[in-house]
Amino acid sequence: MTVVRVAAAAYGVDFLPDRAAYGAKISAWVAEAAGAGAELLVFPEYAALELVALLPPELRHDVLGMRPALQTFLPDFLGLHARLAQQHGVCIVAGSFPVEHAGGFVNRAHVFAPDGTHAWQDKLLITRFEAEEWQISSGEGVRVFSLGLRGGESLRFGVATCYDSEFPAPARQMAEGGAEVLLVPSFTGSRAGFTRVRVGGMARALEGQCYAVHAPLLADAPWTCALEDAVGRAAIYAPADGALPEDGIVAEGGWNESGWLIHDLDLSLIRDVRVGGHVLNWRDRVAAEERSTPAEAVILGASVGV
After folding, report:
1. How far apart are CA 249 and CA 20, in angstroms?
2. Cβ pair 181, 211 in contact under 8 A
3. Among 66, 85, 158, 192, which residue's beta carbon has the most beta carbons within 10 A?
4. Domains, the chain, ranges and CATH?
């Protein structure tokens, strides 16, 4: 049996006075999850935008000007998370950061290994606000991360950031690359937005017969248009089959309650339903694709005049 303890952050944004305060806050969060035995920690989408509070006031509502200004914090941001990952021997998916790349900016989730090294997954599908107002570009490429666990086995996981989770293709590529856990960091400004990501995460868990770990940003931040309102609850989803929960919800936190959701994921349950479930969504994905032909328009009955 392979079990991994994961920690999903429902991360509440604060107006912090300086870099030291930011470092202390992130350090305390990581220490809490690591102290509870978590091996894989995931922070929400755009949690790094808490750093906007450290910019000059005139930039806090300048959605284009804040992007290059935030780059001055990036080296310290990376160094902080690398040190914490190494110090506690955990894997950290940091709050995503708008990173300058190829003449534009991408929404990048950095993934830190227990030895302090890091890689990343860029968001692939961009929402209207990101594209039209913030001018954030789509990233390229799907990645699957392999993490050695303390018990000697390994875990493969992917990161489907917010809107990415609402589409089958990225998660399917991750699952076909061996991912058994899908991390879904999100930033949603309304219950409707949160529900879209929640439904997307549950659908991806069903299709891929994998776990989906949802980590939402929480904010009431009128001091910057980059954040303003963010709502949600941390949750873990799974296919509703076998010994997994009948409603597909493995665990969840309270609505808009800041803190960690920490839970053990038994990978054997996922592996069992993939080969012996009441339905075999993972196996039948190929048949579903092969049997899906272009839609034929069928006219039902004769036209009826008014």
Report:
1. 37
2. yes
3. 158
4. 3-290 (3.60.110.10)
